[in-house]
């Protein structure tokens, strides 16, 4: 029996602008299992980021249930949600979201502050993560002294530093050129190969082709959910 990392049941999400309801997710039911590598695709405005924010415990659904690694997170209060997020999830954003005044090393160490780990151990662990993304020689640099690809590698190291069970990435190569995008996708491939569960949003077919499973969202519902043909074994 495979273990669900993510179990979604009839997830709905509306935004409210005054009295006007904007329904964005219209009943999403989905299981993602341990060590899957999933690309989430779909047109702009189809609800990909809304879904990712719910998966990442950055937002809660209007209705439906979300079981993350066995815990019902759909009805949790903000404090508990933040705790689960810190422990279970590494989130990578298109805009990197690094702290501009902190060095690469300090940025990577941030999640360890919330985990209550002492400074010496924090910096050692952060350095080990920077080595994994081959940026140990940029540890003292601030984000504005790094290229876009290097910033994203710092952000990936930060997402991994707490050893989360789930890595979520919302258009992680959206601001990068093709060559740099390939380098970043190689890192996600290595993350998956080392046993992580990865869900990544992209609108580029070439990027999605790195994933084993491709889910397409359209107008707030799942339009298709298939195994990448590359990985279908035929005899
Ligand atoms: P995608 O990531 O697929 O482009 P989003 O999930 O960002 O789609 O957005 C889906 C719809 O929800 C869009 O119409 C967007 O304008 C709207 N939306 C997203 N976030 C908010 C918000 N915080 N408040 C109001 N409307 C939002
Ligand atoms: Mg988006």
TrEMBL record:
<keyword id="KW-0067">ATP-binding</keyword>
<dbReference type="InterPro" id="IPR027417">
    <property type="entry name" value="P-loop_NTPase"/>
</dbReference>
<keyword id="KW-0813">Transport</keyword>
<dbReference type="InterPro" id="IPR017871">
    <property type="entry name" value="ABC_transporter-like_CS"/>
</dbReference>
<dbReference type="GO" id="GO:0022857">
    <property type="term" value="F:transmembrane transporter activity"/>
</dbReference>
<keyword id="KW-0547">Nucleotide-binding</keyword>
<protein>
    <submittedName>
        <fullName>Putative ABC transport system ATP-binding protein</fullName>
    </submittedName>
</protein>
<dbReference type="GO" id="GO:0098796">
    <property type="term" value="C:membrane protein complex"/>
</dbReference>
<feature type="domain" description="ABC transporter">
    <location>
        <begin position="6"/>
        <end position="235"/>
    </location>
</feature>
<dbReference type="Pfam" id="PF00005">
    <property type="entry name" value="ABC_tran"/>
</dbReference>
<dbReference type="GO" id="GO:0005886">
    <property type="term" value="C:plasma membrane"/>
</dbReference>
<dbReference type="InterPro" id="IPR003593">
    <property type="entry name" value="AAA+_ATPase"/>
</dbReference>
<comment type="similarity">
    <text>Belongs to the ABC transporter superfamily. Macrolide exporter (TC 3.A.1.122) family.</text>
</comment>
<dbReference type="GO" id="GO:0016887">
    <property type="term" value="F:ATP hydrolysis activity"/>
</dbReference>
<dbReference type="InterPro" id="IPR017911">
    <property type="entry name" value="MacB-like_ATP-bd"/>
</dbReference>
<dbReference type="InterPro" id="IPR015854">
    <property type="entry name" value="ABC_transpr_LolD-like"/>
</dbReference>
<dbReference type="GO" id="GO:0005524">
    <property type="term" value="F:ATP binding"/>
</dbReference>
<dbReference type="InterPro" id="IPR003439">
    <property type="entry name" value="ABC_transporter-like_ATP-bd"/>
</dbReference>
